[in-house]
Amino acid sequence: MNLDRMKTVPNPETSFFRNLTEKLRSTMPEHEIDEALPLIKEIHLLKKEKNALILGHNYMTPDVYHGVSDFTGDSLALARKAASVDSDIILFNGVHFMAETAAILNPDRLVLISDPKAGCSLAESINAEDVRELKRQFPDIPVVTYVNCSAAVKAETDICCTSANALQVIESLPSSKVIFLPDVYLAQNIQNQTDKEIISWEKGKCMVHEQYNVDDLNAARNQFDDLLIIAHPECPPQVIESADFSGSTSEMSSYIAKNHAKNLLLLTECGMADNLRSEFQDRHFISTCHTCPHMKRIHLKGIRDSLLYTQYEVKVPEEIRIKARKAVDRMLTLV
Ligand code: 13P
Ligand code: SF4
Predict the structure, then answer these.
(1) In this structure, which ligand is nearest to the CA of 290?
(2) Which domains, from first to last, does the chain contain?
(3) Residue 59 Cα: closest atom of ligand 1
(4) Whose C-alpha lies nearest to ligand 2, atom 8?
(5) pLDDT tens across 302-328, in order?
(6) pTM
(7) Is the dihedral of CA 250, 161, 106, 310 positive or negative?
(8) N or C terminus: which one in the chain shows less Cβ crowding within 10 Å?
(9) Which ligand is nearest to the CA of 204?
(10) Given this model, what pLDDT does residue 12 score?
């Protein structure tokens, strides 16, 4: 530990740390907060030293989400923010495809991820050759890829989308048929809202959201009155049809802010409800959720080491980056 650096650690009595401790108390036991605070202080100092900005996905654990992130959001908001960052380093607290999107959009910055093994079952379900084969099979049909895929897959694509804008992106295309990759459930959920014919990729499923089923919803409805059930659109169609609302992770927060109900069931990754609990302290978040093992690879110690040792760089080969950028830019200029 660099003692000179520790001398200038922010005072634990500052309002930032007092507010943070309050927020963390709604989800973390006291001894874990005590362990987290020194690391959080060290990360703040390293950020300053290295001129780094931390982007954090909504699924980060509360210590990472509330403690060290400069900007939080869903994948669309984080992509937009990444494009305009002017710090020397962007440290991306999320999974690899999200950090790659930052590197696609802002090639002049050093993009880091604290664990390059933080993948995604959707991104792993498809590669660039699979997309080329589909294009041979269905010539002249536009390809839309959900951002949960590699840069190499994005590079084969006409336009990207996120869970916040998938329907809008598909509706914007002049063709009556669209290839939509890689999430088969998101494809089916959009198929239920559009007249266009969607050709999907059967192998693509989110390992977290595929675990939810209608029994989870029925059990909660039987047990709780004054209940809202909110599901991420990566859930199977029967779940989405039975939920009260479906939207991206940031749309879930906005919906909760606008629609009062005492009890909330979030059918998404556990970090989401953990982070919202501190924001909406008068609500009851029902604790049934599934964890994304990839998102959980990102933790305070790894983040500290990432800044300390400037690791691990996320780089996209230039010829792939330029092609992938066209697909991402097309989405960002549309919505
Ligand atoms: P959002 O774009 O809704 O944040 O979703 C990203 C994701 O990976 C959901 O599992
Ligand atoms: Fe991928 Fe699902 Fe994890 Fe999101 S929750 S990163 S879609 S595996």
Answers:
(1) 2
(2) 15-120+295-309 (3.40.50.10800), 123-205 (3.40.50.10800), 209-286 (3.40.50.10800)
(3) 4
(4) 120
(5) 999 999 999 999 999 999 999 999 999
(6) 0.94
(7) positive
(8) N
(9) 2
(10) 60
